[in-house]
Design a protein that fits this description.
Blueprint lengths: L14 H7 L11 H20 L6 H22 L5 H33 L2 H21 L1
Helix pairs in contact: 2-3, 2-4, 3-4
Length: 142
């Protein structure tokens, strides 16, 4: 006679076999600081090109801004895949928000440039710059 339900014996422990069949190990955590720094520098250059481009053309700044924005979105995709640790999330999401604001600023610069071109602003600015440059050159050259 038995006094109760049979208690199964403890399963033997085989750590190497368990490790072999546990599946894929988690990917190593990536240091996000160099990527965030690269994106910050890229965004700073893009905004500078957008502002300077108001005198000439905003297109190079727009290209760099789109590049930075797409790169920031790619970093967010890496967050969702679990490549980054929790501390890196705030930095990457912050850069993505700045990239989004830079895109809005870039579009505003493009609209401003189109308005200025339509209203003859560039004719007046470049004529004034030409006259100033020629006046300085005439004084220098005698």
């Amino acid at each position: 006679m038995t006094d109760g339900p049979a208690v199964p014996a403890a399963a033997p422990s085989f750590p190497k076999v368990d490790e072999l069949f546990d599946g894929e190990p988690p990917p190593p955590q990536v240091d996000v600081r160099p990527r965030v720094l690269r994106l910050q520098l890229l965004l700073a250059g893009a905004v500078a090109l957008d502002v300077a481009g108001l005198l000439l053309t905003v297109v190079p700044g727009a290209i760099v801004t789109v590049w930075a924005w797409l790169s920031a979105d790619a970093e967010v995709a890496r967050i969702e895949a679990g490549t980054y640790d929790e501390k890196a999330v705030a930095a990457v999401v912050g850069v993505r928000n700045v990239a989004r604001a830079a895109m809005v600023f870039c579009v505003l610069c493009l609209v401003g440039q189109a308005w200025a071109l339509h209203n003859g602003y560039y004719d007046a600015v470049w004529a004034t710059l030409y006259e100033l440059t020629m006046g300085v050159l005439n004084r220098i050259l005698g």
